[in-house]
Amino acid sequence: MEIRLATLHDLESLTLIFEKYRDFYKKTADYETAKSFLEERISRNESVIYIAETDQKIVGFTQLYPLFSSTRMKKLWLLNDLYVEEEYRQKGISVALIDRAKELCRETGACQLSLETSKTNMVGNNLYPKTDFQLDTESNFYYWVP
Asked: Does the global pTM surpass 0.90?
């Protein structure tokens, strides 16, 4: 298995697995919009996408977005997406993708790697503490939808 940076050459295969990720979150399939979304992120350098590849097949990915902390005056990364094909789970691929995300933080001098997952995501809620993520029990998370 290889973990590497996704490029525009990966767009077709990446879109297929991205759509499976979106399906996991009960989103309506929309291949063309998903493809355009990923193409924009990659071509505009608006996110970093790492793919896990086995036998020249993309079996997992993680997408990270840059953010900034005003109080720490440093960059931080949001691990927004993490997905591994069902038949490749329990093989350490998620951990390898997270480890690569941590490496990106070190490479860019970032002060933090953050993520959010639902309280019902038992797989994620078991995985993240095992990879040294700390659960923030002191902050409230708010959002606004236009």
From this structure: yes
- Cross-strand bridge partners of residue 113: 77
pLDDT at 143: 87
Is residue 52 situated within a structural domain?
yes
Condensed to tens digits (0 to 9), the pLDDT of residues 6-35 reads 999 999 999 999 999 999 999 999 999 999
Would you say residue 16 lies in a domain? Answer: yes
Total tally of structural domains belonging to the chain: 1
CA distance 86 to 88: 5
